[in-house]
Every structure is written in structure tokens, then in C-alpha cells.
Amino acid sequence: MGELVDKIKGNANEAAGKVKQAIGREKGDERLVEEGARQEGKGKGQQFIGKVKGALGDDI
């Protein structure tokens, strides 16, 4: 179960980060672009954790 939750959260964070980056670039807000990049990275990390949990059977 944890695998699916992590993957969903990861996808949501990655998508939100991409949106923030796009808005930041459009408005010229470098802070928002950086925040979006961090959130996208967090999402990718969560997805990776979900894959690891899937491979290990949620035993971690």
C-alpha cells in the first residue's frame, strides 16, 4: 500500500513543481522557479521510494 501512496504523492509533487516553474518563468519570479524545481525533485524522490518499496514488498 505504501508503494502506491508514495508514487501518487510523487506524481502530484512533480506536477505541481513543473507548474510552479512554468508560472515563475512566465512572471520572471526566480524564487518560484527554484521552489518548483525543489518540489519536482521531491516528487521524483517519492516516486523512487515507492519503486523501492514495491521491489521490497513494503518491508522497509
TrEMBL record:
It holds the Pfam family CsbD. InterPro entries: CsbD, YjbJ_sf. It comes from the Bacteria. Residues 6-56 form the CsbD-like domain. Residues 17-47 are annotated as: Disordered. Residues 23-43 have a biased composition (Basic and acidic residues). SUPFAM superfamilies: Hypothetical protein YjbJ. Belongs to the UPF0337 (CsbD) family. This is CsbD family protein.
